[in-house]
Sequence to fold (282 residues):
Amino acid sequence: WGGHSCPAGVLVSRNVDQSIRKTVGKRNIHGNNVQVYRSQISVAQWSSNWLAYSRYEGLIVTGRDMQEMPPGALAAITQYVECGGSLLITGGDWREPDSWRRHRLDVSDEMTYFMGFGQCRVLNDSSPSAGGAQWRQITQMWQQAHQPFSEHRGIDDANRLFPVIEDLQIPVRGLFLLILLFAVGIGPVNLIVLAKMRRRIWMLWTVPAISLVTCVAVFGYATFAEGWLGHRRGETLTILDQATHRATTIGWAAFYSPLTPRGGLRFGYETELTPQLSTGRG
Fold:
């Protein structure tokens, strides 16, 4: 999903009128105009995996599209809406899926479906002059889909908001003291002791030995401070749809590990991951 620096994107069926596409492109979210992406294929060829649509803040189809859409694509779009996406149907005769009926809310002759974490609106008047209030509500629907994934935080801010470990600060004082002792020990102390023993030639092995001991001490200090095992935390919210036997989960997962996990991080094929940390690349 895009961030504040990336405009919200809307995927539009190729059957949607051009005037509607122009109207959508003029809508503004977070200071950027909505980016309109016109599908080059018919809805009969749309994907049956909801992740194919998760890049977009909204989908726009016609009532005819809904009639021609294969069951797999319809199920994927339904799952996309349940996961926080938005769908706009621009009028036309169509029959609502049976599983949608119990999610419908009729307000002022407009049908709105609240499914999971997202919503679907039916625009009966599909002309671009269909009323400023309607388009403001539609824009707000896209903004709600865009907002949760648009804020990236630094490591400290993220750990403060969703703590994984108590302290992320690097132990600068301890490491500085250790390096200072190393510098003093390998230099003046080593030289003075060997001079008194009249064994300066021993510097050929005492210097590497002191360096080795210091490396082991640094490694041991880091191990003692952070340990071997990683830390993880997760908080999720799940909506169970008992009628369709589906569950939709949204949540946060945070990981902190001193060492790279051997097997990496693995998630299911129907899971979308959205980084919440700023990469510093704009």
